[in-house]
Amino acid sequence: MPTVVTETLSSPESPQPPRKRWTRAECALLGWLESPDLRHIELIEGELINRMGKKPPHTNVLMAVMIWLQDAFGREYVVPERPIDVAPQDVPTSEPEPDLIVLTRPWREFYVNPGPGDLRLAVEVSDSTVNFDRSTKAALYARAGIAEYWVADIPRRRLIVHRDPQGGQYRTITAYNEGESVNPLAAPDRQFQVAEAFSGVPKS
């Protein structure tokens, strides 16, 4: 049975030193977010996050989920690693790039970043970033009102489904393990078998 997620995420171990908070305007002025040498950098809440290189488990899970979403929604609607706009109050200091997004219109129709109203679903594939994706990223997407957000938790081989964004957080968070399935809100007649996501990841 799917389980409601209640475990507490780990918090910082000690106070952090003051940091410079960057804005999208500053990054654009410096060309940081467009530079090929910094293509793994993502601006989240004023901090430049290193997305790091993708290891085979991450790539395999991303491809498995993407292929299924393309089959369910159409290839024109599913885009990997595209920057999006979030809630107006977060736009100046955040330009997240979900691993996958499902759009309401074909990707060719977007000449600027898609906004929250343009998204049916956002997906993050998480290996070493599970806590970050379930806390900071989830709050960012909830404040934007993105209706559904999936986290593919590679270490625990489960899919964590976030729904019902209210007051800056998702009110419903459910974990689906291998052997279980989930129907996306935007495609309720299509059933995603969670085991498909991890078929290319050997069990430890």
List the SSEs and their pairings.
Blueprint: E1 3-4, H1 24-30, E2 41-44, E3 47-50, H2 56-73, E4 78-80, E5 100-103, E6 119-126, H3 130-144, E7 148-153, E8 158-166, E9 169-177, E10 181-182, E11 192-193, H4 194-197
Parallel strand pairs: 6-7
Antiparallel strand pairs: 1-9, 2-3, 4-5, 5-6, 7-8, 8-9, 10-11
How many helices? 4
Which whole number gives the mean pLDDT? Answer: 87
Q: Main sheet: which strands, in order across?
A: 1-9-8-7-6-5-4
Largest sheet: 7 strands, mixed
Distance between the termini: 23 Å
What order do the helices and strands follow?
EHEEHEEEHEEEEEH
Structural class: alpha+beta
Unreliable segments (pLDDT under 50, ≥5 consecutive)?
none
Question: Approximately what portion of the residues adopt beta-strand conformation?
Answer: 25-35%
Radius of gyration based on Cα positions: 17 Å
Instruction: Assign an overall shape.
Output: globular
Any overview of this molecule?
The chain is α+β, with helices and mostly antiparallel strands. Helices cover 22% and strands 26% of the residues. It is built from 4 helices and 11 strands. A 7-stranded mixed β-sheet has the order 1-9-8-7-6-5-4. The relative contact order is 0.16.
Notable characteristics:
alpha+beta, 204 residues, two-stranded antiparallel sheet, 7-stranded mixed beta sheet, single chain
In short:
With 204 residues, the chain is of the alpha+beta class. The protein contains four helices and eleven strands, in the order βαββαβββαβββββα.
